[in-house]
């Protein structure tokens, strides 16, 4: 297996599989895995939902931006970001400048099914999580696309197959870049 060079950053809505696919991609490519939510939880000692409760979303976004600014400076990492990481222009710039950005997509049905039992996503603790996901999609899809080098549809895709295919795609991309330089 040829080595994949550089950093890989996963973006997309809640339930797209950023954490799951990111961890698997890191394992397969021998890179170090980070997740911006886990890093925030490590630094604060509390869960994401607790930060939203006590400090509110804006302060969570401040913490998220600080974590992203630190992590993008590392080498040979896979970073799963939180779904809202693309909201701030400084985060989009940091991600675009320091690695290959992979946008994981899925339809709303799959996103709903994958997030419905998890209480650690405060934005979905609402009477109508489907409507919330739809409005987040409308707001964020252009932002994910703005910085994406690769867009991957994860709807009804088995995680292992998805990661193998993604790895092949990244290798192809790398070969193309190498042949141009
Ligand atoms: N391609 C997939 N097919 C089926 N289930 C998936 C897929 N990707 C992720 N999941 C499941 O969906 C849930 C949310 O995934 P997660 O990686 O936490 O998403 P994100 O970090 O993008 O919010 C997890 O239970 C995970 O096992
Ligand atoms: O979409 C969002 O704004 C959020 C997504 C979550 O991460 P995942 O996308 O990994 O679920 C987490 O950062 C927080 O609950 C806010
Ligand atoms: Mg996640």
Automatic annotation (TrEMBL):
Sites binding ATP sit at: 15-20, 121, 157
What general EC class does the enzyme of this chain belong to? transferase
Q: What is its EC number?
A: 2.7.1.71
Provide the binding site for substrate: 37, 61, 83, 140
The residues that the entry says bind Mg(2+) are 19
HAMAP family listed in its UniProt record: Shikimate_kinase
Q: Which family does it belong to?
A: Belongs to the shikimate kinase family.
Q: What does this protein do?
A: Catalyzes the specific phosphorylation of the 3-hydroxyl group of shikimic acid using ATP as a cosubstrate.
Report what the protein is called.
Answer: Shikimate kinase
Organism listed in the record: Gulbenkiania mobilis
Give me the gene this protein comes from.
aroK
């Amino acid at each position: 297996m040829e080595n994949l060079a550089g950093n890989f950053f996963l973006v997309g809505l809640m339930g797209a599989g950023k954490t799951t696919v990111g961890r698997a991609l890191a394992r397969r490519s021998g890179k170090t895995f980070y997740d911006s939510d886990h890093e925030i939880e490590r630094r604060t000692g509390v869960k994401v939902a607790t930060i939203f409760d006590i400090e509110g979303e804006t302060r969570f976004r401040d913490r998220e931006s600080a974590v992203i600014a630190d992590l993008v400076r590392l080498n040979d990492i896979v970073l799963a970001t939180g779904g809202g990481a693309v909201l701030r222009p400084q985060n989009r710039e940091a991600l675009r400048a320091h690695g290959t950005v992979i946008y994981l997509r899925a339809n709303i049905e799959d996103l709903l099914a994958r997030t419905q039992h998890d209480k650690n996503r405060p934005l979905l603790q609402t009477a109508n999580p489907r409507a919330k996901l739809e409005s987040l999609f409308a707001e964020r899809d252009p932002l994910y696309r703005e910085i994406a080098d690769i867009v991957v549809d994860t709807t009804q895709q088995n995680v292992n197959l998805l990661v193998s295919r993604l790895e092949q795609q990244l290798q192809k991309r790398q070969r193309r870049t190498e042949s141009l330089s």
